[in-house]
Design a protein that fits this description.
The protein is of the alpha/beta class. The protein has a single domain, classed as 3-Layer(aba) Sandwich (Rossmann fold), CATH 3.40.50.720. It contains eight helices and seven strands; from the N terminus they run βαβαβαβαβαβαααβ. Helix 1 links the parallel strand 1 and strand 2. Helix 1 crosses helix 8 and helix 4 packs parallel to helix 5. The chain is globular. The protein starts with 11 loop residues before the first strand and ends in a 7-residue tail after the last strand. Bound molecules: NADP nicotinamide-adenine-dinucleotide phosphate.
Length: 254
């Protein structure tokens, strides 16, 4: 059956930034396809709320508070997940932040916070998880980039730099771990309605601009990432590595 290619039953997925927005939506998608979930983010209460929602899909869901800005916190969470589940088959590197300011206004602290979370954090989490995948004989790593990994936008100096960096980090990790049967790919979403972009969503002028700039004429809904994350986590994508899939209603095609 062709659907077997998308079956994640028995797989263990670790998702960072899983308590809200796209991380939560992608966790729901992975759980619907049969995966057990290890949910990571900083706020334990938000994580618990997300876990009870995701558990309604019927697979095992546990929470592991973790701060991707701190290497020690990452290593402790990965060790705890391996102790509880015995393996990690899928890593979704998704935790992210943004500071929208012009290049002249952006402070050094803000630049560091965005780059340390969105780029260094992905490197540290993948570095902590990959040895277990290598021991297991393979795995899938999915990094969240953005349309701004491919095209520019004002007020996004730190964010676009981090997301462009993710496109390149994805290629390097894909090459280094290709012979270990780990496929590393990225997803590049356009504007999706999540807490990260609530201020833009609530600004009528920006909301209209984004609709008009998008060939398909609208924002994405978080559940519209489910298909792509399942595909990249499943056997269906076993010969695809180092790629960025833009889920963007056409934003990056013109
Ligand atoms: N929404 C969009 O339109 C859009 C478009 C393109 C790309 N993306 C990317 O998709 C990813 C998710 O975005 P989103 O819109 O879902 O964001 P969101 O709704 O703001 O959620 C961000 C998640 O990351 C966690 N997080 C933030 N800093 C963290 C840290 N230092 N350590 C661990 N977890 C941390 C947050 O939980 P805690 O605060 O509790 O830690 C939360 O679970 C990001 O990488 C973002 O750049 C989003």
């Amino acid at each position: 059956m062709a659907l077997d290619l998308f079956d994640l039953t028995g797989k263990v997925a670790m998702v960072t930034g899983a308590s809200k927005g796209l991380g939560k939506a992608m966790s729901v998608g992975l759980a619907k396809a049969g995966a057990d979930l290890a949910l990571c983010a900083r706020n334990p209460g938000d994580l618990r709320n997300a876990a009870s929602e995701i558990a309604t899909c019927g697979t095992r869901v546990e929470t592991f508070p973790m701060d991707v800005l701190r290497g020690q916190s990452i290593r402790e969470a990965v060790d705890a997940i391996l102790a509880r589940f015995g393996r990690i088959d899928i890593l979704v590197n998704n935790a992210g932040v943004n500071v929208r300011k012009t290049t002249l206004e952006l402070s050094e602290e803000e630049w560091d916070r965005v780059l340390d979370t969105n780029l260094k954090g992905y490197f540290l989490v993948a570095q902590a998880v990959a040895p277990a995948m290598i021991r297991q004989g393979g795995g899938k790593i999915i990094n969240l980039s953005s349309i701004f990994g491919a095209v520019g936008m004002n007020n996004q100096a730190a964010y676009a730099s981090s997301k462009g960096g993710i496109v390149q980090l994805t290629k390097v990790m894909a090459i280094e771990w290709a012979r270990s049967n780990i496929q590393v790919n990225a997803i590049g979403p356009t504007y999706f309605e999540t807490p990260l972009v609530a201020t833009l969503r609530n600004d009528p002028e920006r909301f209209r601009f984004i609709n008009e700039r998008t060939p398909m004429g609208r924002w994405g809904q978080p559940e519209e990432l489910e298909g792509t994350v399942i595909f990249l986590a499943a056997r269906a994508s076993d010969f695809i590595t180092g790629q960025t899939v833009y889920v963007d209603g056409g934003w990056t095609i013109w």
